[in-house]
Amino acid sequence: MDFVKEIKEFVEEECKKPGSKYGYEPFNHHFEPTAKHAEKLANKLGGDKEVILISAWLHDIGSIIHGRDNHHITGTEIAQKKLNELKYPEEKVEMVKKCISNHRGSNSFDTESIEEQILIEADTMSNFNNISGIFKAAFVYENLNQKEAGKAVKDKLENKYKQLRFEESKKIVKPLYDATMKLLSKY
Questions:
Q1: How far apart are CA 110 and CA 31, in angstroms?
Q2: What whole-number distance in Å separates Cα of residue 107 and Cα of residue 156?
Q3: pLDDT at residue 41 above 80?
Q4: Averaged pLDDT score across all residues of the chain
Q5: pLDDT at 110 over 80
Q6: For 115-140, what is each residue's pLDDT tens digit?
Q7: CB within 8 Å of 9: residues ≥ 6 apart
Q8: Mean pLDDT of 3-8
Q9: For residue 9, how many other CB atoms are within 10 A of its CB?
Q10: Nearest CA to 98 among 76, 70, 114?
Q11: Does residue 109 carry a pLDDT above 60?
Q12: Where are the alpha helices (DSSP H) in the chain?
């Protein structure tokens, strides 16, 4: 069984559901870029590539189904259930759960494995591929005006860039980071 394909399809179906908290957009604009960055980093840095990719597809599933609050916790519960249904090996289920549980940038120093850190990096990197989505969140979900949103987006991306640990990650997003900082320099 192609577990990565099964999980990708599961996430896509959840994003398509009418009850999805953020609609379908996160599938194309967040999950896909995160998975692509995760694969690039896994190819360069090692780790269990299958665990990394499954974690990349599932890392924000808690947000899609239940909302952003504690999504790293609800996501591990959803991952456990889905991976058990697929009869994924239990030791790998535990690895995926650790990746999801620790994927938030604020938890990045609690990681124990290359798989966890790669997911954090890939999730962080995906922000630079979805600046319009960050602005949408600032306008729609946070009700900020243009000036406040510009500053919030700039601050968020500066912080995200500083959270990157791997030189490989920084090298990949540096051109996007520089361009974004130039565009948002008035904030």
A1: 23
A2: 16
A3: yes
A4: 93
A5: no
A6: 999 999 999 999 999 999 999 989 99
A7: none
A8: 98
A9: 12
A10: 76
A11: no
A12: 3-16, 25-26, 32-45, 49-58, 61-66, 71-85, 90-101, 114-126, 131-136, 146-163, 167-183
Secondary structure of residue 112 in the 3-state scheme = coil
Angle ∠(136,138,142) on CA atoms, nearest 5: 120
C-alpha span between 22 and 31 (Å, rounded): 12
Give the integer Cα–Cα distance in Å for 96 and 83.
9
CATH of the domain at 74: 1.10.3210.10
Residue 17 to residue 131: CA distance in whole angstroms: 24
Sign of the torsion angle spanned by Cα atoms 181, 72, 107, 33: negative
Task: Retrieve residue 123's tokens.
Answer: 């999730």
Number of domains in the chain: 1
Distance of CA 46 to the CA centre of its chain: 19
Cα–Cα–Cα angle for 149, 106, 4, rounded to 5 degrees: 95
Could you give the CA distance from residue 169 to residue 92 in angstroms, rounded to a whole number? 25
Residues counted in the chain: 187
User: Which domain does 42 fall in, by range?
Assistant: 3-183
